[in-house]
Amino acid sequence: MAFKDEEQAxxxxxxxxxxxxxxxxIWFVVSFGFGILLVDVLNEVRFFGFKLGFxxxxxxxxxxxxxxxxxxVFKMNSLDKKYGVDE
Length: 87
Hints:
Elements: H1 6-37, H2 39-42, E1 46-47, E2 50-51, H3 52-83
Antiparallel strand pairs: 1-2
Helix pairs in contact: 1-3
């Protein structure tokens, strides 16, 4: 990676870290919040025949994590193009 100056490099990493923290916060809410804290409330709703809280704790957190990986890749490709460090 070749940034034009130190200020551009700091801005790039600042945006990268902000994106990572947002995506990790979403994953935390889905896995810990929906799968553990709100499981009793969500279990009142059925999803494909399963209780929603059970589904989030068993499958939903994993699916969300995989989706967030794809979101991260898409956003990082955009960020790389924005700062001119794409391949």
